[in-house]
Amino acid sequence: MRIAVLGADGYLGWPTALHLSAQGHDVVAVDNLIRRRWDEECGTGSLVPISSMEARCARWQQVSGRSITWHNVDLRDRDAVEQLVVAIKPEAVVHFAEQRSAPYSMISPSHGVETQVNNLVGTLNLIYALRDHVPDCHLIKLGTMGEYGTPNIDIEEGFIEIDHNGRHDRMLYPKSPGSVYHLSKVHDSHNLEFACRVWDMRATDLNQGVVYGTTTDECAQHPELATRFDYDGIWGTVLNRYCVQAAVGEPLSVHGKGGQTRGFLDIRDTVRCIELAALNAPAPGEYRVFNQFTEQFSVLELAEKVKHARAAHGLETEIHHVPNPRRELEEHYYKARHQHLLDLGLQPHNLSDTLIDHVIQAVETNISRVRRETIAAAVDWRRGGGLYRAPAASTLATATAR
Amino acid sequence: MRIAVLGADGYLGWPTALHLSAQGHDVVAVDNLIRRRWDEECGTGSLVPISSMEARCARWQQVSGRSITWHNVDLRDRDAVEQLVVAIKPEAVVHFAEQRSAPYSMISPSHGVETQVNNLVGTLNLIYALRDHVPDCHLIKLGTMGEYGTPNIDIEEGFIEIDHNGRHDRMLYPKSPGSVYHLSKVHDSHNLEFACRVWDMRATDLNQGVVYGTTTDECAQHPELATRFDYDGIWGTVLNRYCVQAAVGEPLSVHGKGGQTRGFLDIRDTVRCIELAALNAPAPGEYRVFNQFTEQFSVLELAEKVKHARAAHGLETEIHHVPNPRRELEEHYYKARHQHLLDLGLQPHNLSDTLIDHVIQAVETNISRVRRETIAAAVDWRRGGGLYRAPAASTLATATAR
Lengths: 402, 402
Description:
Two copies of one chain form a homodimer. Chain A is an alpha/beta fold. The first copy, chain A, has a single domain, classed as Rossmann fold. A seven-stranded parallel sheet of chain A has the order 3-2-1-4-5-8-12, sandwiched between helices. Chains A and B meet through helix 6, strand 6, strand 7 and helix 7 of A and helix 6, strand 6, strand 7 and helix 7 of B.
C-alpha cells in the first residue's frame, strides 16, 4: 500500500514510517522539521541523539534494502500540500504532523494561537487536497484520549448511543479537553467527521493514550534509526520522565494527588495500531474512531511501578507530590473502552518491570545528555510561562550535530 | 454598563450597538469593516443603503443625544485586541465579529480555511485579552443553532444529562454542524467552555437561530441608522431572500423538499436577547448556553407563509423546489429547547403576515438596487464555486457611495 506518513520526524512518526516500510508498504515520509526548531525555542532536546531525515532514510535503505522517500513539506502551505498529494497519490495518509504538547500550548497566548492554527490549518489543507485529488484515500489521523477529559461516565470510542425524552440517536461523544492543544484535536475531530459526512471521505481518528518506551523493532536495528526521546516538562510524557528521574537519582515528581488516570500504551503498540488501521480501511463516508491505548493507570500508580522496578535491583526511589501546574481533577472516575483495535488483532505489550528497566537503561546510556533543569514542569495552566533557559553554547553544538 | 460590541458594522452588530446605547449603556463599537470588502469580492451588496460607521455614530449622537465610540480593530491582530481591552476595560463584550456565512465558507478551500482561522484566532485573541486584563468581564459570544445539526433527539441548551451504564454526567450537547462555517462556531464553543472551566472566565454562548427582518426601533429612527439587508445566495437568510423574490415577482426557491427545519427569530428579538444576557451575567467560571430563537419552521413552511401574506393582497406567488446545493437532511425530527431567554423576560415577536408585508415594503423601497443574478444559491456544498460576477461599474459606484 502506498502510505504517506506526515510528521515523520517525530517520536512516533519515524517509528511508524519504519514499521510500515518493514511490513512491505511503500512509504513516503513528510515533515517540516519544526519540532527541532521548537526544541531550540524551548531549551529542550531529545535524550537519544537523532539523525537527520536524510541520514535516517539512507541508513534504513542500507539496513533493510527498502526505501522511504522523504519530503520536507509544511502542511500550512496549501499549494505544497496539494502538490504533494497529486505527486504521490497515497492510498492512505497517516497524519501525526501537529503541535502535540499540551504544556507548549499553554506557555502564552501566542503559543496557544500558534498551536490551534498550525493543527487546524494543516489538517484542513490535507482534507481539501485529499478530497479534490484522491477522494478514496484513507486518512488516519492522530487524535488523543485527552479530547474526552475525565467524564463521570464510561468513555466510548468516539460515539455514544443516547436515549433522551423517549427518542434515540447515536451521537459524537461529548468532549471536555484539558488544554489548548487538546482543544485543537477536538476541533480536528469535528472537521474530520464533517469531511466524511458531507464529502464522503473515509477517515480513522485514533484517540491515542500516553505513549511510553524508547524504541521499536525497526528503530533498534541501528543507532541512526533511533527515534527521539523527550523527558522534559514540555515534550516528555509522564512514564518516560519518571524513568529519567529514576536514572539520575531524583525523586519522581507526581502532580498533586496523582489520581489523574489516563490510557497508556507502548510505542511498539502505536506502530502496530497504525498498521492495523491502514489494513482495515473504513467505507467511503465513514468517520471511525478508535481509542488507541492498552491499559489505564493513574500517574501515582505509574510512579509506584517505577519505584517497584528499581527496588528489584536494590535501588531506593522517592516519590514527591509537587503542586499541580495543570488545572485538572486529581481524583475521578475513569473507564475508557478500547476494543476496536483489539478486534482487529492488536496484541498489547502490557507495561512490565522489564520495560521500565529497558527505558532506564536507555536513559543511562545517554545520561550525560540529561539537562536536569528541564525535567520539572515549568508551564502553569493558569499563569502560562515556562520556557527553559536557552541551552548553553556547548549543548547547542551537540543539538546542531543531531 | 460599559459594553463593547464587536462586529458592530454587521446586520445584527449595528442594531445591537444602537439598542444597548438606547437602553443607557456605554457602548464601544468595534469592527474591521471586512464585511464590506467581502461584498466586493463576492459581487454582493446590502439592499438597504448603509452609511459609514463614522456617519452612523454621528447621526446617532444627533438623534439620541447619546454617543457610541467607534474603533476600527481587526481581532486577528492580538496586540490591537489587547490594547483595545486595556483601553476600554469593558464589563461585557458582545462578540459578533466573525465570518458568518455558511455558503462563503464552502466556496473553496481557501475560503474554508480563512473562515476557521478568522473566527478562531479572533475569538482566542479576545479570550486571552479578557483573561489577562479584565478577567471578570462577561463575554457574550454569538454561536448558532446550526452547531447542533438535526439530531433525532430533542436539542437542549448547550448541555445534556446523560445516563450511561449505570452512571450519570452533565455533558456538552454533541454537535453535528453543517458547514465549515458552522464548524468554526463549534470550535469557538469548545474554546469558550475551556476558558470558563480552566481560567474562571464567565461567558454566555448564544446559539442563535436564523434572523429575519429589516429594522429595529433604533435603526428606524433615521435612514442613516439603517442596518444592512442581505438577500443574496451567500449572505442572505432564507426568509429575507423569499421576501425579495416575492417583491421582484420571482418564484420562491425552496432547496429540495423543504422539510429542513430551523429556529428563527425577529431582528428585534436579537437585540433584546443580547441585552437580557448582558443584564444577567453568569457567575465566574460559568459557561452558559442559550438557544436564541423564538419559533421553528421548515423552509417550505416559510415559503408558504410568504405566499399567504401576498395572497392577502391578491398577489400570486409561486414556490419552486430547486436542487439543494447543500448536503443536509430534507426531512427530519427537530425540536429545540429555547427556555432560558424566556425565563429572563424575553417577549417574542412571533412571525406574522404584517412582518412579512413590512419586509417586502422595505424591499420595494429599494427595488432598483436588487441584483437579480445574486439571489439564487451559487455555492454547492460538494463542488464549491459560486462567487457572483463582479458588479458592473455603475453598481460599484453606488456601492462606494454607501
